[in-house]
Amino acid sequence: MIVRMNESHVAQIAKMEKLCFSDPWSERSIASELENSLSLWLVYEQEERVLGYIGSQSVPPESDMMNLAVLPEARKQGIAQALVCELIRLLHSEGSESLTLEVRVSNLPAISLYTKLGFEMVGRRPGYYVNPKEDALIMRKEL
Description:
By secondary structure, this protein is α+β, with helices and mostly antiparallel strands. The protein has helices spanning about 10-20, 25-30, 80-95, 110-115, and strands at about 1-5, 40-45, 50-60, 60-70, 100-105, 120-130, 135-140. A 7-stranded mixed beta sheet has the order 1-2-3-4-5-7-6, with helices on both faces. The chain starts with a strand and ends with a strand.
């Protein structure tokens, strides 16, 4: 089930950040998104366990995807796709006309998913990521 993030999800999301990313968001940073009127975070949960999440910030008519992660043992089940699709649906209903994201150039599964969902490469940010240092592809979808 996909729901909007609430306080009960923050600790699990922070643990997933550490598991999935080399430069994770802190629990405090994630919690602060609950107070940010520009943010929309969604959680895919099963029996109160967070299996995946996605975060965004919007200044309509534009939105930016901040985070997307799925637990390693829950991957390849369509969770990431479901989260992106629900985020797009909600952002569009709230007035966003486009969604932009950055993705590591080496993250071929994510690039494949975004391309499948209609995102197009519109640029590159050299040295955007650290640990390891790597370029980001900028991808965008008109909603």
